[in-house]
Design goal:
Helix content: 10-25%
Order of helices and strands: EHEHEEHHHEEEHEHEHEHEEHHHH
Number of domains: 2
Shape: globular
Structural class: alpha/beta
Radius of gyration: 22 Å
Largest sheet: 6 strands, parallel
Strand order of the largest sheet: 1-2-4-5-6-7
Number of helices: 13
Length: 501
Amino acid sequence: HPPPPPPPNPLLLVFPTPTPPPLNHPNCPTSLPSIANPLPLLSNSSLISSYPTTSAYGSSFSSSLSRLSSSSWLAPSISPIAAPTSLPILIIISSKTPLTFHPRRPLPLFHHPTTAPSELLDNCVELDPWHSRCRALSNDGFGSKATGLSGVIPEDLVPAWYWTDQFAMEIIYHNRILNYKCRTMEPDSATAFYIPFYAGLAVGKYLWFKYRWKDRDRYCEMILKWLQEQPHWNSSGGWDHFITMGRITWDFRRTKDEDWGSKCIYLPGMRNITRLLIERNPWDYFDVAVPYPTGFHPRSDSDVLEWQDFVRNHNRKTLFCFAGAPRDTIKNDFRSLLLRQCMNVSGLCRAVDCAGTRCSNGTSLVLEAFLDSEFCLQPRGDSFTRRSIFDCMVAGSIPVFFWHRTAYLQYQWFLPSDPKSYSVFIHRNELKNGTSIKSVLESYSKEEVKKIREKVIEYIPKLVYAKPKEGLESIKDAFDVAIEGALKRIKEQKQFGHKWK
């Protein structure tokens, strides 16, 4: 079972109450394009709107907010928001007091109206047992601006790059939802409800050391208890609600008290909620896998087009590359096998040894390797997926997979339906039995490689999260694809006779 993240608690943005938004925003679609169901076995889900109501928080919530001091990244300005009657999204903004910011506590914390444990006041310095999370969660979740990229990528695109943390997805989505063109302030007109709770950040530090299972479950139990007291929850049982959970699904699927993770997904109230995660359980319809955040956050359509052109024409000097660390404590470690094959074909493969923190945010080594290679090896990570998949594809390198669950059974909304059109698959057992990666990759002609790479480049916009809170001008990014996909599912569920796919 999988690994860990960073934590506070249910995030709720509080703003001055805005003027009721206009209806029928010209950019809010009244119908959505067909989006492949992420799980062909089952089919049913829910959600979108932002919770929190005025009386639900009690005095403890107000007093804790007063201790924060102004955060521009958590309090985007309110502009006219579209609320078409067909596919509106609801965000209830209930306080007249704007959020304030404290450098040691950049995330606003939501307190259950009857329970406000001191843990909810933990700041970003304490979200991780080893180091501060403040820098990683800054800039709307994009992290600190990338450095050391001059000469690696076009100079005018350097400002679009950040050292974004792989677990920052919840913050990125929250900020975008607050500015979504189809948001509405009227609960009764909402198609779906967004739950502003940072499940991944809340459980992060409790996955380690002395913490007990009760610590890992506390905040999820609190938010679900509160949700079940809300009228719009009770009218649907959660079918029209969704939540972002910025970690892999296995971090929320503890079956025994002594096992890893929280049991958030197994709590009764979570059963019908659509969950956007960076890795899903392929056999749970309500799990939807969305791309891990990468470092590229385009500021405009032109950024996307320029980047696509750059990676399309970049001179790739090596056949393939591998960025990762061997697991010496694991018998017959597969990553060690990949590294050995890479080392044995000197000049054709570039290896980036990520032992320790060498490949942590703040280095250009991995990006350079992907930019310089035709193919990039993508074994499973600590779980079946890894952020490296998206770093690789954004760099225009063709991914080579060894497990179907690394991508093919995960990101169906974001990747081509035909795996062969954008990737290479070599079963791991073939390598263990002596198959040469070099021989397999050299069997592709230049024209075949060019065709596959073009498909990778075509899908780059769906794999990145744009910098503007309102999204890009006309190009849809990963956030747009995820939200439209969730809305489509919810709308279909409400139709008479709808069956799970």
